[in-house]
Amino acid sequence: MTEPHRRGVLARWAEVLPLTPQTPRITLGEGETPLVRSVAIERELGLDELWFKLESSNPTGSFKDRGMVVAVAKAIERGSKAVLCASTGNTSASAAAYAAHCGIEASILVPEGRVAAGKLAQAVAFGARIVEVEGSFDDALRLALEVVETQPIALVNSVNPDRIEGQKTAAYEICETLTDAPDALAIPVGNAGNITAYWKGFVECAALDYASLHPRMLGFQAAGAAPIVQGAPVENPQTVATAIRIGKPASWKTAEQARDESGGLIEAVTDEEILDAYRLLASKEGLFVEPASAASVAGLRKLNRAGALQGGRIVAVLTGSGLKDPETAKEHNAIDVVRAPATLEGVQRALGV
Ligand code: AN7
Q1: Tens of pLDDT along 234-253?
Q2: Under 8 Å CB-to-CB from 215, ≥6 apart: which residues?
Q3: pLDDT tens, position by position, 298-337
Q4: Top mutation candidate among 68, 157, 163, 319 for ligand 1, by most atoms within 8 Å of CB
Q5: pLDDT over 70 at 195, yes or no
Q6: Measured in angstroms, how far is the CA atom of residue 62 from the centroid of ligand 1?
Q7: At a CB cut-off of 8 Å and minimum separation 6, what does 307 contact?
Q8: Of 65, 221, 244, which is best to mutate to test ligand 1, by the most ligand atoms within 8 angstroms of its C-beta?
Q9: Can you tell me the mean pLDDT for 54-78?
């Protein structure tokens, strides 16, 4: 028999993760996500190859599960009975799922309003203790850091290095599937943990001879929440891409390192550019992602318009599912529904046949 599909990140990547015999081998089937070739945007951009890493295929619908499975396993190994995180939505959905799976408590701090409905629905379903902080994500993260100073609760934000270790496995998978690293990786940047994790993964892959090159890291922030691009924290970040509505990224320095060591860039894309890419991914590729995920493709299109997109083989990370944010889908697509009576004639007329 061949290996079962989706063994989970801990089993699949044990040799490159900080596991001990005492680490519980938990899994919800995260990782081993599809790498799908573009059918339309690759041509539009004149690229040799454009691939999408479908992180929306993880159990809670975002890349966060890769890091969360490691963070929760290590927290349990250290004796924790509870986890805490601040979140724009996906981290909290993932933390709540793994906590439920392991029979421990999850508490989450979310910024008031603006968390996409699907993400909150997940946290509710998984039974998390949900605290809506009257402030921004950055306020919530600052407070989470203060809470764990005095309480025996494991912080599972990406300031926790176990999260980065788990998330780096996506870079290993890309190198494995393509049998090398791509020339460039396009990725949305919020709290900047993921760009940090991918870069760590690609550097390790090159050192282990799984790859012959290091990809250029192309990070994209939303224009209304672009502290790294502007070189200063953003007091009141605003963007339709609520997942990356972050003004003071925790992994700011390591994101700049990833950019500079890889010869890459971190640039801003407007909400309009994000929404254009969001609609294009769905209508021309069949990929329904959340707005933050579309920032990677919006960024590639922006570079192309500026004549600054180098060719070759590029992977764009699609970080989360469009189902997370049904309101944005309804608000920013032309809804064209025709009513028909429940008769053959009525339906045929509506169909125009
Ligand atoms: C879909 O859930 O920060 O740069 O609290 O949900 O590693 O922060 C989410 C971030 C991109 C940015 N795409 O990744 C949270 C949170 C999606 C996201 C990002 C997030 P980082």
Answers
A1: 999 999 999 999 999 999 99
A2: 181, 182, 183, 184, 185, 202, 262, 264, 315
A3: 999 999 999 999 999 999 999 999 999 999 999 999 888 9
A4: 319
A5: yes
A6: 9
A7: none
A8: 244
A9: 98
